[in-house]
Amino acid sequence: MRIVLYTGKGGVGKTCVSAAAALAAARRGQRTVVMSSDRAHSLGDAFQVDLGPNPISVAPNLDALEIDPGSEIEEHWGEIQDYMRRLLTSQGGDAIRADEVAMLPGLEELCTLLRLKDFWDQGTYDALVVDCAPTGATLRLLSLPEVFGWYMRRLFHLERAAVGVLRPTAGWVLPFPLPPDDFYAAIQALYCRLLDVAALLQDPVSSGVRLVTIPEQMAVEETKRALTEFSLYGMCVEQVVINRVMPDEVTDPYLEATKAVQRRWMKQIREDFSPLPIEQAKLFAGEIAGLEALRQLAEHLFGDADPMAALRSEPPVRIEETDGACRLIVDLQFAARGEVELMQHGDELVLEIGSSRRNLLLPRGLARMRATRARIEDGSLVVEFVKDEGVAKPL
Hints:
Blueprint: E1 2-8, H1 14-27, E2 32-36, H2 43-47, E3 56-59, E4 62-66, H3 69-76, H4 78-90, H5 95-101, H6 107-122, E5 127-131, H7 135-173, H8 181-201, E6 207-213, H9 217-232, E7 237-245, H10 256-273, E8 278-282, H11 291-302, E9 317-322, E10 325-331, E11 340-345, E12 348-353, E13 356-361, H12 364-367, E14 369-377, E15 380-387
Parallel strand pairs: 1-5, 1-6, 2-4, 2-5, 6-7, 7-8
Antiparallel strand pairs: 3-4, 9-10, 10-15, 11-12, 12-13, 14-15
């Protein structure tokens, strides 16, 4: 099985491209499922069918679904939500409001990650296409394993131990219930599953991210930022899709200025994003909705090519060893030297690029070394490590 995630700025047509890719894979004989992780679901509109949280057949070899966070949370994290309900009602909240507030920030995104892993483990399908939310929400989604890991490494065990000490007398002292053991067991199990998801999404053989854009300035600039941030989190961006390109046969004088703008930005995209593979789809005369329209888009985009094929083999974050030293390489195609800040804290390397920050957990061998130098070289951040027991300092 292989996973392809499509994302991009809102309104660039990523849902239609996702649906077309899934249809193309299914028409090649691959057992395919396409799912939407966008709260404002439009995947069902693309296929012109009503979709729910369970896969239904929309074409031969092709199933589709739209994630329902409520049912997913009830299934996977009943213990967590039960405690949140009891905590909120103990403070005077009514049951209906407690149910609403118990939907903690980030839980909806976690639903998508767990459902993705479920499909992988079940082995029912050969191909999984994800119609992701717009870029910002997708970045939050894919960074959740990292954020959750930070909490687990720093706070989880301390918090659980403190609750264990307080529990015998808490009923007499505290005006709210403490989390039960089942609550912490559920969090621990959730963390283990998220580690598996992170490993899956950071393997370019198993999965890849494809950025959909249009030849306009705001969309292109957001696509640049997205490439940098996905790379920072170890996700392999393997293709850029330029959508809604006005075809040459359109000769109306009213649209000449628009075509000139598109030509300029298409040239810029090909220069800036090289050597990434770049595909383009024309602006169709009619609306892209229904199987026939999606089939036409699929043939236009992919032809006879496999839409699920891995387009890159090298992960964006990797380690190279040379003569007893090590180099950590992070592909950051659009990052300038002044935008990158680093700090090493024991087994963590803190990377900051503009407003983005990643606490990168170093492998055990690398954690025993000290980062001594960092530089931007040929579109990559290169951090050099040497064997040294000294105190880490800002780079």
